[in-house]
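User: Predict the structure for this protein chain, please.
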Amino acid sequence: MGWCMPNRRLSKFSDVTCAMLAEDGVRALVLDIDNTLEPYENPDPTEATLAWFRELGDAGIRFAFVSNNGRARVERFNRALGFPYFYKAKKPFAKNVRRAMQAMGVRPEETALMGDQIFTDVLAAHAAGIRAYLVPPIKDKTDVFTRCKRLLERPILRRYDRRQKKEETQ
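Assistant: Here is the predicted structure, written as structure tokens:
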């Protein structure tokens, strides 16, 4: 279950701060888009999302998108940002995560991947040898496949929560 365990579990993407990244030694973020930064139906980043990118970017954090979505979605979302991006990335495979790190000029130990799914984002992060930050989905799909995935994630999240509680009491 270690490969499925995030390094950090956050309430929302904007909980990632410069101080937290400095504590983790992270200089670059590989990001999922859909349900991590914006819901599927938001084709462009909101002003709040853009402000978060500006704040972290001003502190020297680098960004790249690695999405399983198609080219049109990823290119449109990235239009105002201009970050390296990889679409139809086939996460949990790590190939495009590694390509994103190469495009940003960073090493695995200074990189984290943030996404909303354990079986794509967290697994891809660990397969690439980087930290995994997990956020809850902004607006989850209700189809049978997604509901089954979320059910399978529950025991992993309970284990993560128990581990965190144990660490806090030590």
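The two ends are 23 Å apart (CA to CA).
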